[in-house]
Design a protein that fits this description.
The protein has 16 helices and no strands. The radius of gyration is 21 Å and the shape is globular. Helix content is 83%, strand content 0%. α1 crosses α6.
Length: 420
């Protein structure tokens, strides 16, 4: 890979870190926002859902537009909107003193558009680079999201500790510097158009194929599995397990990201020796076990451990599903990646809202307080555990999709051998 394309790859990696900030800063300050502005858990979930619903819409809209008008200008737009959104989020208490939550929603909408565009376009940009091992290159780029999440957790937690919960807005001002850096690097990058076939029939070439529909289901379950736990880990550790915020953020949410980054980095090194489908099935199965263990473990240390392990379990569900689908439909173009990212975002938008809604609902159940007392828990702690447990539906969904995908792939290979 020549130097100019290496710079493009580095710009994509920095932008992947920016995506991690777009997704993960708000959940870290869930509890300060809840306490300062009297928000409910469902409202906090709505902030996350707005993030991913917006990204979901952007996946389809900008995938088509980028295919038609070119990728680079939309990546520059994405970084610009992320920068504006971060600044507006930090300024919302001053600009909207009577209804700060509305300001937070508007700001979230803006930087989520940026995140959605990047999520849609970074993968096909990296896939188009002249690299010998595209799966490894893709995994490395996605690993920067995980390492970015580690940095986001550590730096944001540090800033909250230093400046205090009342000054949470400092965190978004800090991360706006990263958005500005991404904007400059993308502006200077050389972007290749995504691979396409002269005989490509557009969306009809893949959209109704069973293997693509299964890939969408896997993306939905995989995205929800990753985001469901990572978005609620901070609040669950602090309120559900009564662990100090800094400890919970670092040992729970941060270690989740560390293990996710390790999984993607290791796969880039040795992944060529492994069958992608078997790696994905193992990951989805382990993630399901981790969700259950985090929710029901009577010992906080075990919940922390399984939260971290879940990071490596989910690490490849998103990038390897993209690669697996691209192998079946090599000329799907940007639009195919956009629709797959949309499937992932559909899961990402569902999981935080579902878990938050279940927590609020469970806390209102008449038997919750009595049953919690028998377990030496508060009603809120039990409700949070029930919410995390409900998220187990997502790795189960991904696992079912993967098993069917493997079965159909085996049948297809057998049929091809018969036709030889």
């Amino acid at each position: 890979m020549t130097q100019k394309y290496k710079f493009t790859f580095y710009a994509c990696c920095v932008s992947s870190v920016l995506m991690a900030a777009i997704v993960n800063v708000t959940p870290i300050i869930f509890i300060p926002l809840k306490e300062i502005y009297n928000l409910t858990y469902a409202s906090l979930g709505i902030l996350c859902s707005v993030n991913f619903v917006t990204q979901f819409v952007c996946d389809f809209l900008f995938g088509y537009l980028a295919d038609k008008f070119g990728v680079k200008r939309f990546l520059i737009l994405a970084a610009s909107l992320a920068l504006i959104g971060f600044i507006l989020f930090s300024a919302s208490p001053a600009l909207f003193p009577q209804n700060t939550f509305s300001g937070l929603l508007v700001a979230t909408f803006l930087f989520s558009i940026g995140g959605g565009i990047m999520e849609t376009l970074l993968s096909p940009v990296v896939n188009a680079l002249p690299a010998e091992n595209k799966a490894a290159t893709m995994s490395i780029m996605h690993s920067f999201y995980a390492w970015g999440q580690v940095a986001v957790v550590l730096i944001t937690t540090f800033l909250i500790k230093v400046f205090g919960r009342q000054n949470w807005f400092v965190t978004y001002l800090f991360w706006s510097i990263l958005a500005f850096s991404s904007l400059i690097m993308l502006s200077l990058s050389t972007i290749l158009p995504p691979e396409r076939s002269e005989n490509n029939n557009g969306i009809k070439s893949f959209i109704f194929k069973p293997m693509f529909l299964l890939s969408l289901l896997i993306m939905l379950g995989g995205g929800a599995t990753e985001i469901g736990l990572s978005q609620w880990a901070s609040s669950f550790m602090e309120k559900g397990l009564a662990i100090p915020k800094e400890t919970g953020d670092i040992l729970g949410m941060c270690m989740f990201a560390v293990f996710m980054g390790l999984g993607r980095t290791l796969y880039a090194k040795v992944g060529g020796k492994l069958r992608v489908i078997n790696v994905l099935i193992t990951g989805a199965s382990l993630a399901l076990i981790c969700y259950i263990a985090v929710a029901v473990s009577p010992y906080p240390v075990f919940s922390l451990i399984f939260c971290a392990i879940c990071g490596i379990a989910v690490s490849l569900l998103w990038p390897c599903t993209l690669t697996m689908c691209a192998e079946h439909f090599p000329y799907g173009g940007t639009l195919m990646f956009a629709i797959l990212a949309g499937g992932g975002d559909a899961g990402c938008s569902s999981a935080p809202w579902l878990i938050g809604a279940v927590v609020d609902l469970a806390a209102k159940w008449p038997f919750c307080a009595d049953f919690a007392a028998k377990l030496s828990l508060t009603a809120e702690q039990l409700a949070l555990r029930i919410g995390i447990l409900s998220g187990g539906i997502f790795p189960f969904m991904a696992l079912v999709g993967l098993l069917v995908f493997k079965f159909k792939s085996k049948k297809k290979r057998e049929q091809e051998l018969k036709n030889l």
